[in-house]
Amino acid sequence: QVRLVESGGGLVQPGGSLRLSCAASGFAFSIFFVKWYRQAPGKEREWVATISGNGRDTNYGDFVKGRFTISKDNAKNSVYLQMTSLRPDDTAVYYCHTMILSKTYWGQGTQVTVSS
Question: pLDDT (tens digit, 9 = 90+) per residue, 87-104?
Fold first, then answer.
């Protein structure tokens, strides 16, 4: 059974940093890509970043502009999103996502709130 569990969210002041984690299980983690998405209140879910199965290829949404870094540890079946220079408009629920044999999987999400 494929499972994705996010953690690491919380309240942070503008300009601060957070590191999100996504613990994966139930599939060949080193083969499939993993993506981070986010959804702010009243807005559509938005793609944040992607990392390939082997971790060598990464891509980011334009709004990231060098502030976020996606990484993975295949030995720990985990993907991370290091977020720096956080802004109030980064406030959202952040979700971990993968697709296996045309079936999509999502975690439950972790809340990130950027506020003074």
Answer: 999 999 999 999 999 999
47: helix, coil or strand? Answer: strand
The token pair at 101 is 């044999």
For tokens 């079946």, the residue is: 77
Single-letter residue type at 103 = K
Count the Cβ atoms, other than its own, within 10 Å of residue 102. 5
pLDDT, tens digit (0-9, with 9 covering 90-100), for 51-110: 999 999 999 999 998 999 999 999 999 999 999 999 999 999 999 999 999 999 999 999
